[in-house]
Each structure stands twice: as structure tokens, then as C-alpha cells.
Amino acid sequence: MSALVVLLLLVTQSDSAGLVAHARDAAWAFERARLWLMLPGGAHGSQCDARIGRFCYWSDPSDTALPAEPRQIGERRARLIAVLDSTARALPGDRWVAGQRVRYLLEAGKADSAAAAAQACRAERWWCAALEGLARQVAQDFDDAARAFDASLEAMPDEERCRWTDLSQLLEGPAHRSYRGLSCDERQRVDARIWWLAQPFWWMPGNDRRTEHYARLTMAALLRDAPSPFGPWGDDERELIVRYGWPLGWEREERGATHEPVAIGFDAEPGWHFVPDLRALDVPAPGDAPGALDERGARERYAPAWARAFTLLEPRFAAFRRADSTLVVATWDVTGDTAFISAGYAAALALARDERTPRVVAPFSGTGGAGVLVAAAPWAPTLASLELYAPSSKTAARTRVALAPPAGPVSLSGILLFDPTDVLPADLPDALARVHAGGIRTGARIGLYWEAYGLASGDDLPTAVSVTPAHTSWLRKFAAALGLATKAGRVRLEWHETAHPAQGQA
Predict the structure, then answer these.
(1) Is residue 317 scored above 90 in pLDDT?
(2) 3-state class of 11 per DSSP?
(3) What angle do CA 30, 248, 269 make, to 5 degrees?
(4) 191 neighbors 167 (Cβ within 8 angstroms)
(5) Does the model's pTM come out above 0.85?
(6) pLDDT score of 342
(7) 326-333 vs 370-377, strand pairing mode
(8) How far is CA 494 from CA 453, 463, 487, 491, in A?
(9) CATH topology of domain 307-451
(10) What are the sequence ranges of the domains in the chain?
């Protein structure tokens, strides 16, 4: 190599190092200025939901507004982005510059520009793909985010991939210890099942809880060697981001004349707990209702940008077996919820067998308060999920239930309520034509349709049906205890009939 070539190479390396150093200095100067320009806030965190190293994390679903950002911060960020843009054009292969460029473009609300910046990245292929996945996630393009993160994981070195696919920080107690004992290969099956159950809505494209996790890991990775309002990077900040996300707004808390102020980060609110306990992985627990998603002190939270609320939904499910399929009926009533009936909503009944089998989804759209959905799966489903979403109010509701397999040679279907006439329904299609989806008025007539499986023709079939009050007022209970009123008892009917099964069901 000639002396001239060596000199040119040294000059080029020196220029590159100078450009990166200038960009780093600009980022540090911005973060230093941001801390002092933040709006002052009051004391927070007296009640911590979680303590993670130096951080006190708390969730306040009633306060969803992010602090306003002073105009000066936005102006200084724009100047920093200009520096990062010019540096990235000169050094498209620099990992640090590519990451900070995407980060600050996202902060500025420019998700599309951040995705374009990630596509222009020429650093390691897995890192550039992860940056694009982060930008797509923020833009709520969950399918493209999944494709980008899958490409990133595939291109990662094995050791790096093992770290990225470790979900132990989302688990606690025995589940955490059990999971930590697995190898990277052994974790793959468990991870697939966790993400299957953690997906907020099964009818929506992509799994935004999974892509949110990898977006958080990407944000943590690009903050590791970069300035932050929180100060020096540490494993505690990484854990905070992985479990709850990164701040979208900031305030500062004064600590007296002799101490620098402390930054207070604000995540999106409200957030919900979607990742299941490992106990639910082999036999999903029935009754996974929206109330369970709002667990106080949950190990992890996620605030989907598409949902401002998850409301309580109390549908009725009934499953009916056929020789080659299972038919599930779900009914619901949101008549009293204006978030759903004021401007229309979408609903879906999803049936699932496991994380490997494509789900069966039956959609619905309308404006009525009560509705019914029927879905048929060519296999025996283990879970049924009824999901409602009102786009105008960003209100979501979800209930998942486990569908128990037959417990013996003779078994029963679920119970379908129908509006009776003088002629009883002869079969399931006849009952479905009269299905009752709303509430039941006092004194009203209601029909019950069910099926029995495993009976032989001519079998004697003793049957009992009981109706028990779900709620009794405290006043009536008190009066009954004093002998001033009768106890609200259940109504019970018993009879015998002879079974005449057809095609396996009676």
C-alpha cells in the first residue's frame, strides 16, 4: 500500500470519527438542555407499583394526558435531527448514528421518516431491521413491524438472539424461576405460547404485544450508549423499558438549589397486563376477562395506541360438537354502554386450538346493543375469545374462556338461550333462529337449548334444570334472617325422557 493511500485512509477515518463525535456532542447538549427546559412538576411516586433499581414506577389510569413539551425543546430537537441526518448521509453504516436518528425522529412524531431512515441504514443487517421494526410499531403498522423484527431475529448472532428472546423479565415467582432454567432452544415453544395468549385482539392483524416487546428491546439497545433525561444508563432502565415501555413525555422535579433536577418520565396510559402466567400455558384458565387485564402492580403493562379503555364484557358462550367440527355461539349485550352503541362497533368471535393452528374468526359490525356470533372450527377449540372494538371512542372489550373437552362418554353442550314460542325448536339451527342475546326481564319466558352426546337410542334420561338468583339484596337477606321474608330460592324442574340421538347428538 502506497503512502498516499495510507494517508487518505487515515484522513477518512479521522473525518468519520470527527463527524460521529460532533453528532454525539450535539445529542448530549440537547439532553442537557432538555432537562432544564422541561416543565416543572410536582412530587410523584409516593406509592410505587414497582421499584426497579433507582426508579419508582407507578400507573395512574385516570391521568392519560402527557405533559406539554415546551417549544424550545422541539426547536432544539429539530436542529439535532438535522445534524444526525447529515451525519447519516455521510456515514450510513454507523450503528449509533442510525439508531439516534430513528429515536429522535420518533420523538418528533415522524414515524414515516423514522422508517425511511431505518431503511437507509447500512449498519449490521439485524440492527437496521430492528430499527425499522421500532418505527413500524410506533406507526401502528403491526404486520410490517412483525416482518422487520422477524428478519432482525433471523440475522442476529446466536448469542444476541438468545438475549432478545429471553422473556424472564416479564415473568415472576415460580414462573420466572422455571423459565430461567430453560435453554434458548427450549424457550422457543414456551415463547410461542406466551405470545399467542398475550395478543390483545385475535382478530386484528399482527401481534402488537409481541412487536411492542421487540420495539422496547430496540429502544433500550439504542439508549445504552446514548444520553437520556434519566442520566447514566443502567440495567434498571433497561428493565423499566422492557416491562412498561419508554417515556413519551417529561417533567422535571426540583431537588433544591444544590442538586440538579430529576427527570420524571410519563408513559402512555392506561396500560394493561396481557402477558399470561406460565400456569395458564398448558391448560388456559377460564374466565380471562378484561378485569384481569387491569391487575394492580402487574409485572408488565402495554398501552395500545388504538385503545383508550378496555371495558367489562359479560357474554354467554355455548359450544356444540359435531362429527367433524365444533360450533361455538357467543351472545352479548352492550345496550347500556354508549361507547359502543353511539357510533357503531366491530366484533369478532375467535376460536383457537393452539399457537400453531390458524384461528377461526367470525366477524360482525353494527350498531345494536345486543348481538350474536356463530363460528365453526374443523377441530376442537381450547379457547374462545369475544372481542368488541368501537373505533370512534377507541373502546375495546374482550372476554376469553377455556372450552372444556368432553369429560366422559356422556357429555353436555353449553346452554343456548332462545325466545320461546308454542313450538319448541327441533334442532340447533331452529334454536339459533330464535337466539336470545340480551338481558332477561323479570317474569319473562326464556327457552334453554342444549345437546347431549354419547347417548344410545332408548336410554332413559333423567334431567334436572335449576335457576338460581345471581344476586340477592342485603335487605332481603337481613329480612329472611329475621323471618320477615322468605329466602330467594332457586327454581328446579325435573323430568325423565327417552333419548333419540341423531348423528351423535340428542
Answers:
(1) yes
(2) helix
(3) 165
(4) yes
(5) yes
(6) 79
(7) antiparallel
(8) 20, 6, 21, 10
(9) Immunoglobulin-like (2.60.40)
(10) 22-266, 307-451, 455-506
